[in-house]
Amino acid sequence: MRMLIFLLSLLFLAACSDSDEPRAPTQTGYSVYMQVNLKPEDNTAYLGARLYHDGDKITLAAGDMIVATHNGISVPLKGDVNRFGFYAETMGINDAGLPVNFDIQYLPVEAREDRWYPADLVYVDNGPGQYVGLLNWDILLPEPVTITSPATESTFNDPQDTVTVSWQTDATDITNVRVFARLGCTGQTRLLYEGSNTGSVSGTMDDLFFDRFSPATPALLAARLPLPGESIAEEVAGNIIDAMFEGLFSSPSYNRNHCDIAITVMAEKQEDVGSPFESASIVASQSDAVTIYFRNQGARL
Amino acid sequence: MKQGLMVFWLALFSPLLLAEAFIPLQPLQVYGGIGHGSSVVDISTLDEDKVDDSDAGSLYAKLFVGWHLTDYLALETGVLAFTDYQVDDKDAVGTYSLELDRHDVYLGPVLQFKPRHFLPLRFMLAATWSQVTLELRESFYGVSPAGKARTRDDVFGVMLSAGFLLMQRTHVSAMLSLDYVYRPDLFDDSDRSFDMRDTGLSFRLFFH
Question: What is the mean pLDDT of chain A?
C-alpha cells in the first residue's frame, strides 16, 4: 500500500512539474499551429505561429524565419526571446480574396533587424537551417463577419444590463467563433464565448467582467481544434488579440464602474496542411469590433 | 578598478606636485611621452533604447610626440589604443557578444599657459583618424553552430583634451588630463551606423 501511495505521489509530482508554457503536441513528426486574422477596418492581418517536431517547439534561430507573402509583399514573422518558438507579425491585406502564403526562408539580415549595431554588415553566416523549405502553403481568409449588436458607442449604466453580441457572416465554412471583450479599465481581455457559429451570445454587464456569457464556452471547447493542443491555440489567438488592441485604450484606471470595452468577434475556419506535417491546425479568421461604454450610475465614484 | 588607477597615479605624484617648482616652457623644444587612463563609452544610434551599455568602459594607453612652436603653442600627434568595449545580449536569433576595438591617431595644436597662482594648463583640439573593428560572436541555442564574424571601419573625428601639469622638471613632466574622442558615423554603409564617444581621465608623462 505504501509503495502504491509512493508511486501515486511520484505521478502527481510529475504532473505538477509541468510549466505554464503551452503544452506541446504529443504526436511524432512535425506539427504546426498557425492563425491569420484579418481586421477589415484597417486591412491589417495579425499572424501568429508555433511549430513542433516530435513534440518539441521548433526554434528558428540563426536567421531562419517564417515568411508570410500576400499579393507579392512578404513579411517575416518575428520571434520573441521571452516566448521561444512563438512567431508573430502584422501585415497589410489589400485583397482578402487572395491567399496568404507561408514558408520558411533563410533571412539572416532581416532576422537581426532589431539589433542596434550594423547587423547587416556583420553576422555569422551558417546558411539555411534544416527547416528552410519545410513549409509552403496558402491560407485563404473566410468571408467577413459583421457585428450587428450592440451598436458601437452604446452606453450601459447598470451591472444587470443585458449585453447581446450578435454577428452576421456569409461564410459557410466557419468552424469556430470567438467573442472577446477588451476591458480598457483593467487592461484585461475576456473570452466571452468560443464555439460554433451561433450568431449571438448574451449576458449582463457583470457577466462580461467575469466571463459568464451564454451559451457557456467550456461545454463547447472539447469539440474544437483537436490539434496540436488547446492551450497553444489559446496562446496564439491571445497574442493576436493583444496585438489588435495594443494602444486602443489609455492606461488602466482599475475603476470598473467607468469602463470602455471593445467587443471583438473572430470567425475562424480550419485549413489543412499536407506532408510533412503529421498534425496541423491552421486557422484563418476575420474579425469585427465595436466599442461600448459602461458607466455605472449606481456606483459611488 | 578604473577609479583606483587614478587614485594610484595621484597618490604617486602628489608629493612631487607639492615640492616641485615650475619651469617655463621652452620654444622649439621637442617632447614625447606615454599616458594611461580609463574612459566611459557612449554610443549613439537612431534608437538609443537598443544599446545595452551596462558595462560601458575601457582602459586606454597613449603614445605621443610634440613640438613647442612658441612659449604657448605646441603641435602634438599621438596614438590612442583602447581595450575592447563589450556588449552581450540575446534575442530570438541567438545570443551574441559584441566587441568594439578602436585605435585613434591624432594631430592638433596644443595651447599651454600658466595662470597666476595655479598649475600650468594644456588644452588640445585635434583631428583624429580612427580605426574601429567590430567583432561579433554568436551562438544559436544549439540549433546551428556558433561562430564569429568581424568588420572594420575607418573614420575621421575629433579629440579634445584639457588638463594641468602636476609636476615639471628639466626632462620630465607629469600631467592629468580629461580626454574626449568623438568618432561619427561608424559603419555608414549600414542603416544602423552609430557614433562612438570615449570620455576618459588619463595620466601622462612627458619627456623633453
Answer: 80
Residue A154's pLDDT band (cuts 50, 70, 90): very high
CA distance B13 to chain A (A): 41
CA distance B92 to chain A (A): 5
Residue in A250, A265, A90, A268 with CA at minimum distance from that of residue A183? A250
Question: What are the strands, taking DSSP E only, across B114-146?
Answer: 121-139
**Cα(A116)–Cα(B48) distance, rounded to whole angstroms?**
8
Nearest Cα neighbor of A25 from A278, A275, A284, A282 is A278
Distance CA A194, CA A120 (A): 44
Mutate to test the interface with A, among B45, B89, B93, B143 (most CBs of A within 10 A): B93
Nearest to B92 among A78, A120, A126 (CB): A78
By Cβ distance, the residue of B91, B149, B193 closest to A115 is B91
Query: A116 vs B136: CB contact, 8 Å cut-off?
Result: no
Query: Do the chains contact at A61 and B93, CB–CB below 8 Å?
Result: yes
CA distance A83 to chain B (A): 9
Cβ contact A121–B98 (<8 Å): no
pLDDT digit string, tens, across residues A228-264: 344 555 666 666 777 777 767 777 888 888 999 999 9
Q: Which residues of chain B make contact with A107, given a CB cutoff of 8 A?
A: none
Q: What is the pLDDT of residue A260?
A: 93
pLDDT band, residue A23 (cuts 50/70/90)? very low
**ipTM for the complex?**
0.82
Separation CA A88–CA A242 (nearest Å): 11
Written as nine digits, the cell of B166 is 602636476
Residues of chain B found within 8 Å of residue A134, distances taken between Cβ atoms: none
Q: What's the pLDDT tens digit per position in B16-62? A: 444 444 445 566 688 999 989 888 888 887 766 666 655 568 899 99
Closest CA to B123 of B162, B74, B66: B162
Residue A62: list chain B partners with CB under 8 A.
Answer: 93-94, 138, 140, 143-144
Closest to B143 (Cβ–Cβ): which among A59, A114, A115?
Answer: A59
- Evaluated on CA atoms A286, A240, A246, A79, the torsion sign reads negative
> Cα Rg for chain B, rounded, in angstroms?
20
Q: Label each residue of B11-40 as H, E or C.
A: HHHHHHHHHCCCCCCCCCCEEEEEEEEEEE
Kindly report, residue by residue over B97-109, the tens digit of the pLDDT: 999 999 999 999 9
Evaluate the omega torsion of the peptide bond into residue A25 and state whether it is cis, within 30 degrees of 0: no
Do the bridges between strand A73-76 and strand A78-80 make them parallel or antiparallel, or are there none, so unpaired?
A: unpaired
Judged by CB atoms closer than 8 Å, whether chains meet at A61 and B94 is answered as yes
Q: What is the predicted pLDDT for the residue at A255?
A: 86
